[in-house]
Amino acid sequence: MPMDSKEIGQLLEKYWNCETTLEDEQILRSYFNGSDVPDQLKDAAELFRFFEVERKRSLDTNFDHTVMRSVKKTERQAKVVSMVQWTRMARIAAGIGVVAIAGYFVRNEVMKSKDQAKAIEDTFTDPKDALEETKKALMMISKSFGKAKTGASKINMFNEAEKKISGKDDKENDKASDKDSKNI
Amino acid sequence: MFESRVLPVKNKLFRFAFRLLGSSEEAKDVVQEVFIKVWNGRDQMESIENMEAWCMRITRNLSLDKIRSRQRKATDPIEESFDIQNDTQTPYEAAENNENMQRINQLIASLPEKQRQVMHLRDIEGYSYNEICEILELDMNQVKVNLFRARNSVREKFIKINAYGL
Q1: Backbone φ, ψ for residue A123 (5° rounding)
Q2: Do A67 and B32 touch (CB under 8 A)?
Q3: What distance lies between CA B136 and its chain's CA centroid?
Q4: SS3 content of chain B, % helix, strand, coil (to 5)
Q5: Which residue, A23, A43, A78, A106, is the most exposed by fewest CB within 10 angstroms?
């Protein structure tokens, strides 16, 4: 829809006030790219022509090639980085492995000792046998106690002797202290 | 996937980076970096709703990083925009040699960062306000205010230059 300069002037006022839509701005753009622009709109026309020129600024054609090459290059670097990460992961995995193996052996040991405990428990199936065995064991302890008691009574003799000696000493000390008190 | 969805927007990314940096070599570097980022994250590409806006946002961030790392005077981007013509010229760039085009280019280059970004995205690339909000991570109000200031500042200065030859 061709517009006269008056309508364009009104649209331009809206443009300066930032009230134009993208469509309005497109109308202005195509109007000012035409050839016959009245003098009073020349300044605006220059501005719109500048926008038009700037919109066509572009990269040279071999840019795609260059950019794809540099993109691929960084990807290779990224792969190197991922290798480093892989070795790091391997170290962590090895650590976990060591702990797991150690845990396995410890568990095995625990299980073995449990088995031994069970083996002792299950030696006697008949209660009478168990009683006999217990009696034997107690007798053994009792005999040992007896031996220990005779030994201990000898030590007791020493103790009593020591007491008697120390008792005498005490009496002598008492007498001495009595004398001292009388002197005072 | 990469070549069908990302490569076609390369010129938009390039123009945006160029607008921010004022140097086509640096702008090329930025676009390349964006592509490398996208390529490395291509597994997550499916989840990105607006691929183009996302790429534009990365372009902006990388360009701003570059500007910060330059540590030069604030006036430099304007001076650098003079150097564009030294590159091999396409017919469009030849048209840019026009005096008025150069003036407008300088006026836009001298705008504050946000105004320049918003004006580029709207008036050159034709993005909707919503898309601009997404790319620049600004709210609608900020986008409109910045666009209003940019358009009117360029307009006033351009009229002044033409009237008084300043």
Answers
A1: -60, -45
A2: yes
A3: 11
A4: 80, 0, 20
A5: A23
Decide: B6 and B40 in contact? Cβ < 8 Å. Answer: no
Q: Which two tokens stand for residue B7?
A: 């490569």
Residue of B nearest to A41 (CA): B159
Q: ipTM of this predicted complex? A: 0.80
The string of pLDDT tens digits covering residues A112-155 is 888 777 666 666 678 888 888 889 999 999 998 888 888 888 88
For range B9-30, the mean pLDDT: 91
Measure the CA–CA gap between A58 and B90, rounded to whole angstroms. 9
Q: pTM for this structure?
A: 0.61
The answer to whether residues B32 and A67 touch, using CB atoms and an 8 Å cutoff, is: yes
CB atoms within 10 A of CB B16: 26
Tokens encoding A48: 């719109």
Query: Do residue A50 and residue B105 have CB atoms under 8 angstroms apart?
Result: yes
Contact: B148, A17; criterion CB under 8 Å: yes
What single letter denotes the amino acid at residue A31? Answer: Y
Question: Tokens in use for B19?
Answer: 């607008």
**What average pLDDT does the segment B101-116 reach?**
91
Mean pLDDT of chain B: 82
CB < 8 Å to B147, chain A: 18
Q: Across residues A81-105, what is the average pLDDT?
A: 86
